[in-house]
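Hello forum,

I keep getting stuck at the same step: I have a sequence, I want structure tokens, and every attempt I make locally crashes halfway through. Rather than fight my setup again tonight, could one of you with a working pipeline run this one for me? It's a single chain of 256 residues.
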Amino acid sequence: MLNAKIKRKLEAGEVVLGSFFKLNSPPLVELFGLCGFDFLIIDAEHGCYTHEEIENVIRTCELMEMSSVVRTPDALEANILHVLDSGATGIQVPSLKSAEQVREVVRHAKYWPKGERGSARACRAAGYGLSGKDYEERANRDTLISVHIENKEMVEEVDALCEIEDLDVLFIGPGDLSQSLGHPGDAKHPDVVAAIDKVIEVAAGRKHIGTVVGSAEQLEHYVARGVKYIAWLSDMGMMRAALSSASQNFAPYRTS
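Reply #2:
Ran it on my machine without issues. Output:
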């Protein structure tokens, strides 16, 4: 059942468009699909989800022919296993600080001989046991692994990260990176820009690179530099902007 659409597109050199997804709303998933998004990053780090709710969002992504990547709350083996057994296209793991931690993530996410992922063919990802004897081989091939580059330690590790087999995407998080570098909320600070530049320069042509954007100008800037795994804000961010814009139309009629 695993939808490897974005992995195949990235391998072909295409840009893929996604968004962080924080709200447990299958109808909203459908709307993203109808509007042409390639994937959603289901945010189990900052969103409020049960395992069952994540699985239903994954299921709806598949209905809309979108890929589903789950931002796990951490790198714990159980959290990685749950979302992959539910059929997620891949994982996006935050809060890591070393190449060795990333290697451990890969071990948790891949079956033998690439890793040590627990095998249970009765899971949804394996078609409840009906996916055939080559299921593990296909899962190893098609599961996408992304890690956040969101602190100064990971910036320093970027060359080592590029050497890790089966790590697909380095996802630059400008907000957290600005905090790690001592400039909270200032993603345009020269120190933050320099860190982002380093990641892109070292990883270009070696790993797929991702980041979050919120404007056509940002999108154009990053795509021109080879960043092709794009998260356009989040469902919450886009809804906030749309609702705020709508509310402003009522401003002339408010007395308080």
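The chain has one domain: 5-149+168-173+210-253. If your local run keeps crashing, start a new thread with the error log.
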